Amino acid sequence: MPVNAVEVFRRHELPERSIPGLVLAALSVIVMPVLVHYKRRVAARLGSGALEAEARQTRVCAFLSAILLAGLGLNAWLGWWWADPVAGLAMVPLIAWEGWQAITGRTCCAD
């Protein structure tokens, strides 16, 4: 992802506008936090570390969807071609952090 984003910057490549992408990202931003809430509630009732870990991953998905929506939206509505690769780069630290958490076995820990 970072290499592609840098290449897009270098070539000043204009991304296509994607209405389905905008709709899907917007729906994800709305639905994912609701899923997190209910998954955490059920996880607590069941005492399920696995479901709590799933809720964490769903929360990360919600954050990634918000970043995606920002990038797609700024490109579509304001013509900011650079917003899409910036959104991709903004995702990298979050993805790296979650990967590190998984490698070190902290996927089931509460925040």
Summarize the structure.
With 111 residues, the chain is mainly alpha-helical. Helix content is 80%, strand content 0%.
Description:
This protein has 111 residues and is mainly alpha-helical. It has one domain (2-103). Helices cover 80% and strands 0% of the residues. The chain is built from four helices and no strands. Helix 1 (2-11) packs antiparallel against helix 4, helix 2 packs antiparallel against helix 3 (49-78) and helix 3 packs antiparallel against helix 4. It is flat and about 50 Å long. The relative contact order is 0.16.
Annotation keywords:
111 residues; mainly alpha; flat
Name the average pLDDT: 86
- Helical region count? 4
Assembly form of the protein? single chain
Overall structural class, as computed from helix and strand content, comes to mainly alpha
Content of β-strand: under 5%
Helix and strand topology:
Layout: H1 2-11, H2 19-46, H3 49-78, H4 83-103
Helix pairs in contact: 1-4, 2-3, 3-4
